[in-house]
Structures are given as structure tokens and as C-alpha cells.
Write the C-alpha cells for this entry.
Amino acid sequence: MPAAGDPLRELTDDMAGRYLVTTTSGSRYWLDLDERSLCRIARTDDDETLTLLRDGEKVDLIDVERCEVAQPMVVLVDLHVENVWCTTRESTPVVSIIALSPRAVLQ
């Protein structure tokens, strides 16, 4: 597992730990691969930022399909919507992936 603060080029679904992924839109994604959760923290200083269902809430992470710098991140999440097994989330291209401390807390 990378040390806290280490920048990464890529995250894969089989990794462990907590990570902060930032995209070109300015949105940030908190990924906890141990807990299998994701939280999107949308930009608040831009009226054109899209609001997504469950923004700011932890959702169940099913799979990290792709998370690589310079590529859109693609994840499968469970939003607990009736009759919907999973939802695909695709971000704008990733600009950074930072390893977080195991004690880091989502705020």
C-alpha cells in the first residue's frame, strides 16, 4: 500500500487503502477500497458543475473499472435505488490520485 501523501498514476480495484482522486472539473472523489465506499465532493465555486444523485454521501463501491491520470475514472456504485443493481459513474479526466492515511476521515 502506498504511503500517505504519495501520488499515484493509477488505482486498481484490487488495491487497499484510502485515496483522494481529483478530476479536471474540480470534483474530488474519496475512495475507500477497504470499506468499499466512494464519496463525490463536487466543486462548489462553479455554477456549471453538475449535481449527481448522492453527492456528498458515501455510496457502496462495487468496482473500480478505471482510475488513471489523464483518463476519465469509471466506477460501478450501488446507490440503493429500487430495481437498479448498479450505476456506472464516469468522471472527467483524472488529474491526481493521492494516497491518504488509514486514519483519514471524510469531512
Q: What stands out?
A: The mean pLDDT is 88. The chain has no helices and eight strands.
